[in-house]
Amino acid sequence: MPKQFSDPEAIAEDIIRDVGTNLVVGLPLGLGKANHVVNALYARAAADRSIKLTLFSALTLEKPRPSGLLERRFIGPVIDRLFGGYPDLTYANALHAGELPPNIQVIEFFFLAGKWLHVPFAQQHYISANYTHAASYLLTRGLNVVTQLVAKRVVDGVTRYSLSCNTDTTLDLLRARAEGRTSFKVFAQVNSELPFMPGAGDLPADEFSAVLDSPETDFPLFAPPAEPVSDTKYAIGLHAAGLVRDGGSLQIGIGQIGDALARALILRHRNNAQFHHIMKRLMPGSEPLAVPETGSFEKGLYGISEMLTEAFLYLIDAGILKREVDGVVLHGAFFLGPKSFYRALREMTAEQIARIQMMPVSFTNELYGDEETKRRARVDARFVNNAMMATLMGAVISDGLENGQVVSGVGGQYNFVAQAFALQGARSILTIEATRHGRLKTHSNIRWSYGHETIPRHLRDVIVTEYGVADIRGKSDADVIAAMLQIADSRIQPELVLQAKDAGKLPKNFEIPLAHRENFPERIAQALRPARDAGLLPSFPFGSDFTEVEQRLIPALQLLREAQRTPLLLPGLLWQGMTQPPDASKRECLARLGLDRPTTFAERAYRALVNAALARSRAG
Prior knowledge:
Layout: E1 3-5, H1 8-19, E2 22-26, H2 35-47, E3 52-57, H3 69-83, H4 90-97, E4 104-108, H5 120-124, H6 134-140, E5 145-155, E6 158-162, H7 168-178, E7 185-190, E8 202-204, E9 210-212, H8 231-241, E10 249-252, H9 256-270, H10 272-282, E11 302-308, H11 310-317, E12 330-335, H12 339-346, H13 350-353, E13 356-358, H14 361-365, H15 371-377, E14 381-386, E15 389-391, E16 396-397, H16 413-422, E17 427-431, E18 435-437, E19 442-444, E20 446-447, E21 462-465, E22 468-471, H17 477-486, H18 493-502, H19 521-533, H20 548-565, H21 570-579, H22 584-592, H23 601-619
Parallel strand pairs: 1-9, 2-3, 2-5, 3-4, 5-7, 7-9, 10-11, 10-14, 11-12, 12-13, 14-17, 15-20, 17-21
Antiparallel strand pairs: 5-6, 6-8, 15-16, 18-19, 21-22
Helix pairs in contact: 1-2, 6-7, 8-9, 8-19, 9-10, 9-11, 10-19, 20-23, 21-23
């Protein structure tokens, strides 16, 4: 039986006494970190330089760090409400401050998107790795400790612990230990909010060397609120929904596009006529509806995804995720989401939760090991993942910049692209917003070329933007370029055509079809407006942790952020806000930001800007 501790410092001392002063510690990705144990180990190593501590992890979760008056006033209360009791990870604070002691190393293979840009130590110690390779890299570095957040259950006096949110690499490491390929010890921290997930991650107590279990070290789970889904992301989700085949398999990545896709699939299933109507409005020009899959889900889908998100639960409730594989409709390797998501998992009946099984990442992301069974299960698979940019010839950029700075990581994206080519009838669907806003102009996310790539062009398959679908698998370079141009923003299309022609990759007489020369954000907004107004495509498709007032403020603050990138727009907003008195609804929003009674010039200016932004965002 494991030793029981109620004090983090005591379990840290036990780890050092048991394992030694050269600690190579594996921390689960994302939610599954045993924060108090990790912080206690960090404190011991920081105080005693004879201790060498290496932390190997991914997706370090941090509370938002607001900047600027409006952002601080808006997000500050949200942080207190949603993250107030979440213990910060000491090593993350030290990394940001550039104060990591020389005897401590932090190595990650996946970053929270954009969080570690221009942080030299984090960038220098990043390991580029497929998710499925992370466990092997840990073993080669001499892993001797795993710390993990767990759920606890006592039945008939017998205690069991669930790896819950992070079976991903831990189960693969435990298998290696059971096979005698490594020797390490597992130390757990119990969390009362963590759902007890049955299946492979439901472990007997003797798998653990020691457990930290105390009300004083219990804490609220990290629960990022769902973000609003924009017109751009809804358009991408709708296009992707038209590629998912009934009776097939589905993987979805994290974020608003995953939420948009799930909402679009539910609309396709429950309100098929409206789905057809929306797609006809969304398709360019007067072309006939060229959507491969538009019917409801009679056979249903099977979910196979490294990340289990709240959207999957809604797909189960809608009767879409219902094709069973050995009694299971959804296999996942880790999860992260809002408070409502964790609560839904905790409150499921035994029969409901048994249909969701957490597995090692080697199961979800690879075909190796019981390959024939996996192939029979993963029929007509659709692997849907986000990317940052793509080239006209189909290479995709998802994790980093051409100057070497890492934005996030490869994670499982390459794994799923490889599966799409290995499985009969499977497709890799990579989603990209056609443009992004810079400080002075709009930039295209479809480029002629780029100095870094995550998915090489020889693995090009399906790329989706808000303007449509480019099916580019097995196509010639000229055909790929032509297809990519059709889903690019029309403000940038002429420049891209010229670059392709200059390189000899397009005929000199090539022209983009007329129907695809109207790829403008205004067309997308106009196409979706009736569905938006009818409540078919809500900003928060699966609920929100933001209050009603905060939900009204979000589009106004987004509008202001865009206006700041185009300073010439600010005087007009300022004048409008000063000359049009706010109504009761706007005054409520202004009060939420502490701008109902401005006392300084800055507050008066912000009051006017927010007042105008509220009016314009409501009108839009």
